[in-house]
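Quick illustration for those who missed Monday's session on complexes.
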Amino acid sequence: MKIDTAKSATFSEKAKYKVPFGTVSVTKEARELISQALDSNWLTRGKFVQEFEEQFAALFGVKYAVAVSSGTDADALACAVLYDYGARRGDEIIVPALTFVATGNAVLQAGFTPVFIDIQRETLNINPEKIEAAVTSRTRAIMPVHLMGKPADMDAILRIAGKHKLHVIEDAAEAHGAEYKGKRIGAIGDMAAFSLYAAHIVTTIEGGIVITNNPEMAEALRSLRNHGIVGKFEFRRVGFSAKMHELEAAVGLGNIKIFDRILEKRRRNLLYLIDKFKRFEKHFVTIKEEPHEKIGPHAFSIIVREKAGFTKDEFVAHLDNAGIDSRNLFYSIPTQCPSYAFLGKKPGDFPEAEYCSSNGTHIGIHQDIELKELDYVAQVTEEFLRSRGIKL
Ligand SMILES: Cc1ncc(COP(=O)(O)O)c(C=O)c1O
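Prediction with pyridoxal-5'-phosphate bound:
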């Protein structure tokens, strides 16, 4: 079954797209498990959630996984674990300026202050050269985001974290299956938070999960998702209500079975489109894969170059008219999200993040997209460039 679940479009809107932004795969096995869960009469967190956590941890090569209600909760709970390690409310967590707004929101929801750092246009990830200058006596963690499934520079991040005794929490929401120097993303920092929203490779429709090799952190996460519970009915942390239920876990268990197939298809699509866009290199910066990494593809980012002679909006309108759905390449959270005005940052403080946001878009490369549709994307892009008088 093919269900398009692009976050902000309605079903009637989506019908118009030949190349939709999102998709979700609910397997036959998931349907059977959902029926079993319904019949079992136990629908809140139970054996399916536990089984899902064990399989997810094994898939990512770590000891523990704690399933929660969303990727945002996964981020927030991972941050809140730091209170067990001496952090105080209002302490700082370093995050990239360009990311889905949930990263910043989660840091705030956990009671910390996000300290935003500019990103690199070519990688879309936090600029490691700018991190150290932002470390203060109140910094507790660095939280890199592997945007679009492209790994952040983890060697540099771990070096700075080690030097200043900071924790590293990976926001791996978009990076299922990504690898950095032979290691799967999620197994590198102290904890990694994943979204299991429908757009991602492993999905429970809505959901999230935190993975770690640290047993105390795993225990704290289990407590935090359930109101800060310890033991039977004692509440010792400022907890969240962020539990996953059995029906979600059933979808996730079915989905893990086809993880390799989805990852392979998305990687095929990504590498194919990277190759197709080489011809347009003078006009767009697109996501690239380096020899030391494997991208766990989320979507395909396209940034209009400075001297392209056309705007992102003109390009996006052309894609839209041709039935190719897209999303803005997120925002520079501190300077382009009005809800963050309280931080007192001003336009120009995060030039690369702001540039990517103002000039960048991203389109789908998910498992229900075939090569002929990617050929179509390339053809529509070529038509657009020719319509602007550009010779290829
Ligand atoms: C980088 C990043 N962090 C956090 C989230 C939040 O995930 P959710 O929508 O499951 O809350 C997302 C969403 O996909 C994301 O892209």
